[in-house]
Design goal:
The structure is a single chain. With 206 residues, this protein is an all-alpha fold. It is built from ten helices and no strands. The longest helix is centred in the middle third of the chain and has 27 residues.
Length: 206
């Protein structure tokens, strides 16, 4: 059966989806252009036509996967409710849960970016978007008098650093910490950074 002819944008989207899947299965270091091509039944030349190198394909695939998470983060942070409610929802969603496919992809990208400049620049820019989004809502809540956080940017950095480290542990050593304990620690960290009691956080943010 002949393949349906796709537009450039549609073909690129298809290739990125296949690349993300192959990276999740094989890892950044092991995945090849040929693996992505084989998954779609196309030639390696077609993949290279759109991305020119494996490094560019991997960087674009990582951005493609991360953009969906960023969109969900912005959706949580733009709800019509208090900054405290939005922050708690976002931070608890950011925390690693379940199989954490997204976290496995991030961790793999962090390791690979030590040797791949293109991926390092992409992951750094995406990480900064996460921090900026959280910083904005923390600043909003502090300005409204919801909590006394004096340095929203520093609070966002410390929160994401804590959650990133927790994700590495939970993703690498599955079952080492229960989901309930992880969420408890997440609430404790958020309350500490905002300068409020944890009881006030859980009571107000429900």
């Amino acid at each position: 059966m002949a393949r349906v002819r796709l537009s450039v944008a549609e073909r690129r989207e298809e290739l990125l989806g296949a690349a993300v899947q192959q990276i999740e299965e094989r890892g950044v270091a092991a995945v090849r252009i040929a693996d992505v091509a084989a998954a779609l039944g196309v030639s390696s030349a077609l993949v290279l036509y759109h991305f020119s190198t494996k490094e560019k394909l991997v960087a674009a695939a990582f951005t493609h996967a991360a953009d969906a998470d960023l969109a969900h983060l912005h959706k949580l942070l733009s709800r019509r409710t208090s900054a405290l409610r939005r922050l708690r929802a976002a931070v608890r969603w950011y925390a690693p849960t379940g199989q954490a496919k997204g976290w496995r992809l991030w961790i793999d990208a962090w390791a690979a970016s030590l040797r791949e400049p293109a991926l390092r620049e992409v992951s750094r820019a995406l990480d900064q978007q996460w921090k900026s989004a959280l910083t904005g809502v923390i600043a909003e809540g502090a300005a409204a008098g919801e909590f006394p956080c004096e340095d929203p940017a520093a609070a966002a950095w410390r929160l994401t650093a804590f959650l990133d480290g927790l994700a590495v542990q939970m993703t690498s050593y599955a079952g080492s910490l229960s989901r309930a304990a992880m969420l408890q620690w997440t609430d404790e960290a958020l309350a500490r950074e905002l300068g409020i009691d944890q009881a006030a956080l859980t009571a107000t943010a429900r």
